Amino acid sequence: INNAEVVLDGGTINNGGGFRIASNLGASASKMILTNGAVMTQTLSNATIRVGDSAGLTGELIIDNSTLIHSGGEIGIGFTLNAIGVVKQFGGVVSNVTVNVSRGNSVTANYEMVGGVLAPLVIREQTASGTSYISFDGSTLMPASATTSNAVFFTGLNTAEIKSGGLTVDTAGLDLTIAQVLSGAGRLTKVSTGTLTLNGGSTYAGVTVSAGQVTLGNVANTFPEGVILNGGTLRITANADVLGTNSLALNGGTFGPNTGTRTVTVPVTIGGNVTMSTGTLIFTNSTFTLTGNRT
Question: For residue 60, which of 95, 92, 28, 84 has the smallest C-alpha distance?
Answer without folding.
Answer: 84
